[in-house]
Specification:
This is Pilus assembly protein. Residues 77-97 have a biased composition (Polar residues). By secondary structure, the chain is mainly alpha-helical. The chain has helices at 3-53, 58-78.
């Protein structure tokens, strides 16, 4: 292989790595968004499943009910009109509530 071929191959590998990093970043940002919207629902469902597996029945039903109400709340917040000036208002981030 000549030096020019080695340089071209190195640039192509660098381009592939850059594309991979961009895709991973997009997946991470979307996962953060989903968790921000449904985080409370996911935590309550996980708590309900863990308590069911431990053999506790009454508390797990409460956690599952809380998960349902959190899902309803997230759905109603998702249906509200949002713009760039108020996209975060009302979400469970602890700010702008």
């Amino acid at each position: 292989m000549t030096f020019a071929n080695l340089r071209r191959k190195a640039r192509q590998q660098g381009q592939g790595m850059t594309e991979y990093i961009i895709i991973v970043a997009l997946i991470a940002v979307s996962a953060i968004g989903v968790y921000a919207m449904f985080g409370q629902t996911i935590r309550n469902q996980t708590a309900g499943l863990a308590q069911e597996m431990a053999g506790k029945n009454s508390a797990s039903k409460q956690a599952i009910k809380q998960a349902g109400s959190a899902a309803d709340d997230a759905s109603s917040k998702a249906n509200q009109g949002k713009g760039l000036n108020n996209y975060n208002v009302g979400n469970d981030t602890g700010k702008n509530n």
